[in-house]
Amino acid sequence: MKLTAKQERFCEEYIVDSNSTQAAIRAGYSKRSAKQIGSINMTKHDVMVKITRLRSDLTERVKVDSEWVLTKSIELHDLCIGEKQYNTAAKALDTIGKHINVQAFNEKSEIVHKGSIGIDTTSMGDEILQTLFERRRDEQRSEQVH
Known about the structure:
Layout: H1 5-17, H2 20-26, H3 34-41, H4 45-62, H5 66-82, H6 86-99, H7 126-145
Helix pairs in contact: 1-2, 1-4, 2-3, 5-6
């Protein structure tokens, strides 16, 4: 299904801050209905495919990925230590630890998962994305019934 001009604009605006309500307002929907329209748009397969593609294009253009973030965090940490900016160095170290999942200060780890997980869908074809979207939609409908 072809996206409307407002839906196209919504997708472009959504990748700015990942806020569906604000994206709807910036795309030209009324402020009064923006929250609902944003939420509805986020359930539409074609909208999600477009957002995924826009994010992928953005990542490719700016060349920022997890490896870049890790490398820059290490560089920042080393620079801050040299400059005796220990608070900033500690924040960079925290980012590094989260990035590589170091559990240095945890005596006991517990994993609790609620909600969705991030999946890189940029290499998936439309058929796979459609299947994933339909499964998620069915799960949400099932949750609403119970």
